[in-house]
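Narrative progress, year one. The postdoctoral researcher (J.K.) led the effort to move from monomer predictions toward full complexes, under supervision of the PI. The following entry was the first complex the group processed end to end, covering 874 residues in total.
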Amino acid sequence: MKSLVTIREDSVGHWVLRIVGAVALVVVLVWIPTKGGNGLITDVMEAFTLMSAAMALNLVLGYAGQISIGHSAFFGIGAYTTGICVSRWGFSPWVTFPLAFVIAFVVGVMVSFPASRIKGVYLALVTLALALVFPRLLTWRKLAWLTGGGRGLPQDDAEVSTTGFDIGRRAGQMRHFEIFGWDPFGDLRSIEAKTPFHYWIGALMVVVVYVVCRGIVKSRAGRALIAVRDNETAAAVMGVNLVATKAFIFGISAGLCALPGSFTAIRIGQVTPDLANLTLIGAITFLIVMVIGGAGSLSGPVIGAVLYIAIVSKTGSWADDDNIPGVLRPLFAWAKTPPGTGIFALALILLMFVAPRGIVGAWKQYSRRIVRVEPRPIGVPSTVDALAPSVGATPT
Amino acid sequence: MRGSRTIVAAISACALMLAACGGDDDDSSDTTSAPAPTTAAPDETDAPPETTAESPDTTEASPDTTEASPDTTEPAAEAWAVNTDDCVDPDAANAPIEGTVNIGSAMPLTGGVAAAAFAPVKGGFEAYVAYARENGLFEGYDDINLTIADDQYDPAQTPGAVASQIDAGAHLFSGIIGSPNNGAVRDTLNDECIPQLNALTGSPAWGQVEDYPWTTGILVPYTVESKVYATQIGELYPDGASVGMFYVNNDFGQVYVDAFNEIAGDYNLEIVTEQTVEATDSNPPTSQVTNIANEQPDVIMAVPLGAGCISFLTELAAAKAQNAGWDPAVFITNTCASSLILGAAGPAADGLYTSNNLLDIGNPEVQTMPVVADYIAFMEGQGLGDIITTGAAGWTTGEITVAILNQAAQSPEGLTRASIINAARNFTHTPSLGREGVVDKSMGVEDPYLSESLQVLQYDADTATFTDIGSLITEFES
């Protein structure tokens, strides 16, 4: 297939493209909290939550080929770790991120043990059981002293009356967030300050999850994952330790999936078993977001989450005919309910036919007709390496 | 190459950090500005005299309730008044609201068992606003622009729905459904000093006037309802009874159970089993009902959620058929007490006990009452004839919201966010669809709950109507 433009990997043109993309991304990320409304910022935070969870799931499912329908449980572990540590024991919400990661990592490793012996639909059923059991564990009366039972957290007698940052006017409560004396947000009691504050925590979380995922995927461990996904026997023959690899990736994936759970607890200030993302509905949502965006690609979950939230948010008020754009009114006015999830379900079915690798897969396929990035031949240094050999260029 | 990428990553990270400085430069004053009306102006229809006179006359705005000055942060001598010093922007809380009043709300319109039962509330709420508009019931303001967003009963989605409505200029929120959903936005709305009226849940948490002065509830607290049932069971079984509990495993169910357990001993009620169902579980509670049937309790106290009411009653009917001679008295939460839900359960719902403080709209005799006939006619005119029973809760929410706004607009400081919450917390109103003797009343810290009267009812599946058991219970009114 011929392309209009062909660019060699790591050439000047390729780097220009990369920089333009990165700058555009940064501009959008900065524009949202500075110029966007609170509704948009909150929607983006919800997208941050979904994309982080879907990226974590992508490691296990997209790269390692291990089916998991239980990631909602890891999400819940994150939410409840933060909820319990903050509201019951007065921990700083910041501290609960690594704590949630570690706890979910351990649980993830334990889940991986059956994964080392079973695969396919059987593994899916094991993880499905995890997704079903976890919410019941939260509401189990014998654990209510810890989880708050059906009422969730914080309890009326809680040390701190929130599961997030204890923002308020009283002594001991947080009102400003200063970075070396610099107060970038102002009075955090205001929605105009609190929402961007939470937004940047979410953005930071997404960056961390993305960097970790990218680091793994581009490393030797990532190549081992792909080998396991494509052919376990061949991977084992080539020296990949299947048990250790699966345990590692389940652990990392679970740990990363706990981070958006913690973020949710911080953002809404409470955790209850009613949170959809820690039930089976959440597990399926993560799966759909990942598949629509593109399984086995780093940017797929990001695209999928943005699209999901955009559709659900945009159609949230379509229960009223007046809010439906004129052209679409005949299609959706009869339903009298917001059609967001239905549209997404239809999109999923359609995508499976026309783009089984998701939006990113389709983009890669069709964008090649316009711009093709030609892999750099082995032995040829990249432009950056040639320009700045002293900053750590490595021989290829 | 790896090193150069690290530099690029570091630069990007720095850019993200620098960008964090721009979060608070938006003008927050827009929260008090009144956008242009987007709905029809009032005074354009000819309303029957009896309907136009109804709502204003039923609102007994006490002179005492309107003494709060816009600039005064000290409570008035008698009436409770909110302290706007605590607000992020006190000026915005005291700024006059002119023209159209923007009301926001969030309800489960899609997504699971809750949506099936609660979505009609939206129709009732909107219908009352349309009714008030047609009949010129807005006093001191031109119109109401009501926006109800879908949060799918997921507390993580409620903040987004509410934030969008604040952006759009919502002056107040009313009728948000669900305890965790209201809880998820309570801090934000109280910090911003935006009234969060008529939370459509019976959680006792809405009575925390000191900590959350801007949040009020509309339903009878679940604790009161639970105690009413315990009292009634005590009357049915003066020598004591065994009770099987069935409840949804969330805040909603837990509050009922805690209150029931608290008072059960007073009536010699022994709880022999407690069975739970998850709020998101749409499967029939077969095993739970079987476990209850195994204990053969004299009474079942049931707190299912939404469409779960139907599946519980259906399963219970099957269990009773398999256990000849066992016919327990069934008490069920009044959130199930609509002919839409109980009608769907069919004969399985026959004879159960529940409660309500609104009229039984499905009863043909009640339908002949002028106020109910007007209500039904209007709902049918709006194409909502299929939700006249479940829509009544939304209608009443709309009626109380309009009454509060009218009272606030007539106060000396005029219509402001502060005067709205002052009116809501110093409020006396007889709901048009309320039972005889029901008066919604609140009085600051002394009486934070709007409604605490209940009538115990028994359902007749043949006629799909309720029969009063005893008289209206008002002893729990503060």
